């Protein structure tokens, strides 16, 4: 979905973004990202060298030698069929998805869930696809990344019936109020905030961020959508997460360099614990393909 994934990874490195979770929807894009990712990382290294050289040249003679090449972000994959495409989740695709979950680069099943705003798949079909992928995530020992839009009641009820995965549940790109956030937090979920946290009229989203325990908070971009302020209206990239993180520091009162560093370290630790974990027993088993 990004125009130039390699360039975006290089930009992440330049801005100190150390971890990226990319999304694969096999009903929409197939599994091409799995094959393309090594090439993107190689291209990103070349882009990064060019960026550092250009920055050094701008600083004058010898400037290009003064900055070491920053590391590219670690990249993991969340794979799952989005509720928009639930109508395309056949038994064969479920089986193919299950095999891809054995790839040790995969760290979550998602985005999965319900979208009653667009209703691009019939609601009963969305619910069945959601259930099927919750079960698959639990079998694989992986967390789920949720897309919920105007469907939080049904989504929560389904998770309560199926059982929240022990590996974790991440409510993606949260843009509602504290009352809604509370029940997900009480159920042990992580909450990720993206661009909406920065929107000028979204005080209810900032209210929600204040009630989420700091060890359950993540930041994200939902790139190429939901570009944060002050860049709203432009195409969003993963590196734009720095704007959201800056606003989250303000919202939570991290108003000194030391407090900001502590909070940002906690956010990174949360993402690493949930999404950059060691291979699961499922992933260590031989493929059944």
From TrEMBL:
<dbReference type="GO" id="GO:0046872">
    <property type="term" value="F:metal ion binding"/>
</dbReference>
<dbReference type="GO" id="GO:0005829">
    <property type="term" value="C:cytosol"/>
</dbReference>
<protein>
    <submittedName>
        <fullName>TatD family deoxyribonuclease</fullName>
    </submittedName>
</protein>
<dbReference type="InterPro" id="IPR001130">
    <property type="entry name" value="TatD-like"/>
</dbReference>
<dbReference type="GO" id="GO:0016788">
    <property type="term" value="F:hydrolase activity, acting on ester bonds"/>
</dbReference>
<keyword id="KW-0378">Hydrolase</keyword>
<dbReference type="InterPro" id="IPR018228">
    <property type="entry name" value="DNase_TatD-rel_CS"/>
</dbReference>
<dbReference type="Pfam" id="PF01026">
    <property type="entry name" value="TatD_DNase"/>
</dbReference>
<dbReference type="InterPro" id="IPR032466">
    <property type="entry name" value="Metal_Hydrolase"/>
</dbReference>
<keyword id="KW-0479">Metal-binding</keyword>
């Amino acid at each position: 979905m990004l125009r130039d994934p390699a360039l975006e990874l290089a930009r992440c490195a330049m801005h100190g973004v150390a971890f990226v979770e990319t999304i694969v929807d096999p009903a929409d894009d197939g599994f091409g990202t799995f094959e393309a990712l090594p090439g993107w990382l190689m291209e990103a290294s070349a882009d990064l060298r060019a960026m550092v050289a250009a920055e050094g040249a701008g600083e004058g003679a010898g400037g290009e030698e003064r900055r070491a090449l920053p590391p590219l972000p670690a990249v993991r994959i969340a794979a799952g069929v989005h509720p928009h495409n639930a109508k395309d989740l056949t038994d064969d695709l479920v089986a193919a998805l299950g095999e891809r979950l054995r790839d040790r680069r995969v760290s979550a099943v998602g985005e999965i869930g319900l979208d009653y705003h667009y209703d691009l798949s019939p609601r009963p079909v969305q619910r069945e696809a959601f259930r099927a992928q919750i079960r698959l995530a639990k079998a694989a020992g992986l967390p789920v990344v949720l897309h919920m839009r105007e469907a939080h009641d049904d989504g929560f009820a389904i998770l309560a019936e199926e059982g929240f995965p022990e590996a974790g549940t991440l409510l993606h790109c949260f843009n509602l109020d504290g009352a809604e956030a509370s029940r997900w937090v009480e159920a042990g979920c992580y909450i990720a905030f993206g661009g909406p946290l920065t929107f000028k009229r979204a005080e209810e989203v900032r209210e929600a961020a204040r009630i989420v325990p700091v060890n359950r908070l993540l930041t994200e971009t939902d790139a190429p959508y939901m570009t944060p302020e002050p860049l709203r209206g432009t195409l969003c990239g993963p590196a734009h997460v720095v704007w959201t993180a800056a606003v989250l520091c303000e919202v939570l009162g991290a108003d000194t360099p030391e407090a900001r560093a502590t909070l940002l370290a906690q956010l990174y630790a949360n993402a690493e614990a949930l999404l950059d974990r060691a291979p699961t027993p499922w992933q260590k088993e031989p493929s059944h393909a």
